[in-house]
Amino acid sequence: MTLYIARLFAVRIVAVLLMLVLVLQMLDLLSESGHILAAKGNGQMELLRYGMLRTPQLVSRFLPYSVLLATIITLMTLNQNSEVIAMKAAGLSAHQVLAPLFLVSAAASVFTFTFNERVVVRSTATLKAWQDVDYGAVPTDSDVKSNVWLQDGPNIVFAKTISGRGTATRMSEVSWYRRDPTGVVTEIVHAPLATYTHPGWRFDHPTSFDVQSAALTTLPGPKVYASGVEPTQIIIRKTDADRESITQLSQSIAEIQAAGYRTNELDGKWWHKISGPLSAVLMPLLGSVAAFGLARSGKLFVRAVIGMALGFAYFVVDNAALAMGNFGGYSPFLAAWSPFLLFLLIGETVLIRTEE
């Protein structure tokens, strides 16, 4: 019985997920194809590359939705065929009926977490780096940060790309803008490469453009500029939890905290990397209302709607709690885990109330 229900449930999860990913991939590709083809030299292969990079994100994001929809479809089918009644008549409790679904959902959660850490973060980093250069040349290093603006006291630094971490950080196509007390740019120093010298950045083969005289001068030898810019600023400015695995994000949080900055938003996303995949375990509980009650009573459709409403309400509350955590309204741990615990209690209550 366990194998029968688990297989039935797993097949429906895969079927619903494939349907959602194919439809959403098509719509997303239609909306982005114009931007991709606008870049010089891009064609069909670039559209295919975009689809390959976008697919892992869609799989990760909509797997919990697929578990919810598969739960309702599976339980409605079992209820309509009176299989739930037969299982209850055999002495199985509601939780025992749902046990195979919980096992498959737990496996889906483990798969989602592993898939996120091994595949999704890499594809997201590569895709965002590609989008940062307007779908131009694909960056070879997914950890490259593109189009970064940094504050150097009254002056400004712009780097086309930044790679490396800590003292090994390197900027390419970097420009340093000198500004007067009124904020007007008076000089622009450009270099193809800049490396961190602690303090400051060594500009190799720099050129200076004087705004007032419009004179371009090649400066002799490497020069040091932007002494107020630290590698930690780059981490703070460009750390993206979606691009980093939980190990990389832990390192970024530690470096930012060591520099004396708050990391509430990143802490919340760190916890959500665990609670997010685990949400699949909740879906059989929230959709279980469709399993119990007589199918011939005519209320099976209403029960299915209630199950879908509970499941989608969880995702709404989860996003709202994460946003509140980003603004400091909740602690990071509470923002990530309170929706899970809340709907766990709601699901148990609804299951106990509607079982009979």
From TrEMBL:
Keyword field contains Cytoplasm: no
Main location: membrane
Location in the cell: Cell membrane
A GO-annotated cellular component: ATP-binding cassette (ABC) transporter complex
Domain of life: Bacteria
InterPro entries xref list: LptG, LptG/LptF_permease
Membrane topology: Multi-pass membrane protein
Pfam short name (any one): LptF_LptG
Keywords tagged on the record: Cell membrane, Membrane, Transmembrane, Transmembrane helix
GO BP term, example: lipopolysaccharide transport
Segments passing through the bilayer: 62-78, 90-113, 300-317, 329-352
Name the UniProt record assigns to this protein: Permease YjgP/YjgQ
